[in-house]
Specification:
The protein is mostly helical and 89 residues long. The chain has 2 domains: 8-43, no CATH class; 44-89. The protein has helices at 11-20, 25-36, 46-74, 80-87. The radius of gyration is 18 Å and the shape is elongated. The termini are far apart.
Length: 89
Amino acid sequence: MTKANFQGMTKQELRAYVLQYRDDQEAFYALTDKLREEPGIEITSTEQMHELIEARLDEADARDAYKVLEEIAGLGTTPFEDIKRELGI
C-alpha cells in the first residue's frame, strides 16, 4: 500500500483524508501541524482538534444549506425570507 504524502496535501485535502481515514494517527498529527501553522489557533489536545474540525465542518454545512435555500427560493415557489423565517434563521 502506498503511503500518502501528507506534507504535499493542502489543508483541505488533508482534512478530507483525516475524515475519511479517522484511525490514521499520522494523518491526524499532520493536519494538527498544518493547523498550528495558522495564526490565532493553538491546539493543545486531541479533543480540541476534533472540536475545531467539527466546528469548521458545521460552518461549511451551514453555508451549503444556505446556498441550497437560495437556489430553491430562486425557483420562485416560496420567497427566500419566508423560508428563512420558517427555519428560524
